[in-house]
Amino acid sequence: MQGTKRIAMSLLGAIVLSGFLTGCLTVQLTEPYDETIETELVQYQKDTAAFVARMAGESEAGTEKAKFTAPDVRAFYATQRVVLARLADRAQMLDPEGSCLPSNVFARSMRAMLNTATTQIATLNGDGGSVVLTRLESELSALGDGSGPIADGNCTFVMLKVVQANHELLAWQHEKKGVLTPANGARWFALVDDAARIAIKNELIKKNR
Amino acid sequence: MSVNVEALNVNTLFPQMVEAGKSAAGAGWDEIRTTVRIELKVLAKRLKELAKAVASGEFDEEDARMYFIGIRNNTIAAIALVTNAVHIAAEKIINAVLDVIKQAVNTALGFSLY
User: What is the pTM of this model?
Assistant: First the structure.
């Protein structure tokens, strides 16, 4: 009797499991890998690095081609803007209802980051470190608790929006200064490069899941 | 139809599930730890560069504010990256455990159900 009951229970368990497993043999908790996003981001990163290097050379040579108003320069920013917008749309469509993290997590993480950086910044000569830290703290407060629309949506979409935003910062700095010198170009390109690298890494992690 | 009940024995199955989950988690968590370390280091480096540029007068207040927004953006991206890495590590654990269950069910039934 006991043996029959065990067999019946095991069969029931097997049936429940088969129902559970059918159609969902593998669980996926985040957006799928997208080859187009990976390939085009790598291309964007290369093109932007080449552009900034070219701008550095042109500005040192004092040519008109270094200026933000030069047709090639404007075309570069505009073309890449279109590429990034298309990739961001694509990323959003990977999971249109997806949500990466609550916005207060970002604000809390930023504060932790500032604390981590305190030691490094404090090593600056004079009291420059403490002045800058005070300023950063005030900037953080001004940004509020959330991070705005940039943090909305699925994680891949968030990363693509960051690449877009930092691309605009590079263009903004170029327009403000008129030209990108080697030092200035490298400094602002670093923000774009970090953002692109993070988004590419995300695709590689998803690819190897 | 004969069913191999022993294949679904909890005492046998559970350790296999734990082992599968543990081994799937190992690689995933190592990758997350490395990613967090790299990204935090990069962000701290950028903050230091910002501080240097302000201290040397290379950045005016507007530059500093905009550069800081760029760093903030990358912090958001780094957190999103780690979030996805954690989700994928969890996926690997769940799928490894599900695979053990699948094998056990197939063994118990005597044919490949999936």
Answer: 0.79
- Residue for token digits 């480096």? B45
What are A118-139's pLDDT values in tens digits? 655 665 555 555 666 666 666 5
Tell me the C-alpha distance between A56 and A50, whole Å: 10
DSSP character for B58? S
For residue A2, the distance in angstroms to the closest alpha carbon of chain B comes to 13
Which residues of chain B are within 8 Å of residue A185 when distances are taken between CB atoms?
Answer: none
Q: Do A131 and B5 touch (CB under 8 A)?
A: no
ipTM greater than 0.90: no
Contact A30 B91 (CB under 8 A): yes
- Nearest neighbour of B84 by CB, restricted to A26, A30, A131: A30
CA distance A37 to A204: 11
Domain boundaries, chain A: 34-100+153-207, 102-147
